[in-house]
Write a structure and sequence with these properties.
This protein has 215 residues and is of the alpha/beta class. It contains 6 helices and 6 strands; from the N terminus they run αβαβββαββααα.
């Protein structure tokens, strides 16, 4: 029997509230409307490089709400291969706010593709990013963007649901903490270190090709 069995049956004097990630009860699976049409390409059209996590630059995008009220929330992008995290505080969950901040992010980071859910805040991504490199997951299928969803849990350690206020400085601290967090899937390197090594390898590869043609 697992430790979860003993906890759920009150054998250890602990409750679900003591667990970092408590198991959720079974919920009724929602179904998309038969007339549903995604705002762009389906996730089924992901090329091999994205599905197999062969290179950095392919990001999953999401918004993380702090409270139910219509106020500030987080725009979060997670690189599928390196797990590099980009987190920004935005004034509301609207397509305008998302695109305004995404424009700035695109100037600072190398982003090759974006995979989003079907929230209305993402239905105008093609206004600021190449439509041929935007993909949409199936409705009610959050596991298709599992990298993004799992990293949202790390954010919740610092900003649990119901958090009424945060600041860009605090959000930057959380982003930095996640990007310097060693990960088993990266041979215990941090996303930041993995990105640095990948960029160095890319530069050396380009330099080697240039030298080859010079000779």
């Amino acid at each position: 029997m697992s430790s979860y069995y003993w906890i759920h049956h009150g054998k250890l004097g602990l409750t679900k509230q003591n667990l970092l990630y408590p198991r959720k009860g079974k919920t009724v699976k929602k179904q998309a409307s038969p007339n549903f049409k995604p705002a762009g390409q389906s996730i089924e059209q992901h090329p091999k490089a994205i599905n197999l996590r062969l290179e950095n630059g392919h990001y999953e995008i999401d918004t993380v709400l702090l409270t139910i009220a219509k106020n500030c929330c987080l725009l979060v992008l997670t690189d599928r291969r390196s797990r590099h995290q980009i987190i920004r505080l935005i004034p509301n969950k609207s397509a305008e706010s998302v695109n305004r901040v995404l424009k700035l992010i695109l100037r600072q980071h190398r982003i090759l593709s974006i995979t989003a859910d079907n929230g209305t805040e993402f239905n105008r991504l093609s206004d600021v990013f190449s439509k041929e490199h935007i993909y949409y997951a199936h409705p009610y299928a959050s596991w298709e963007r599992g990298t993004n969803e799992n990293h949202n849990r790390l954010i919740r350690r610092w900003l649990p649901k119901g958090t009424k206020k945060t600041t860009p400085k605090e959000v930057a601290f959380i982003e930095n903490w996640i990007n310097n967090y060693p990960k088993k899937c990266l041979d215990y390197k941090s996303p930041r270190k993995d990105c640095l090594l990948a960029n160095l390898n890319l530069k050396f590869s380009k330099r080697a090709i240039q030298l080859h043609f010079c000779l």
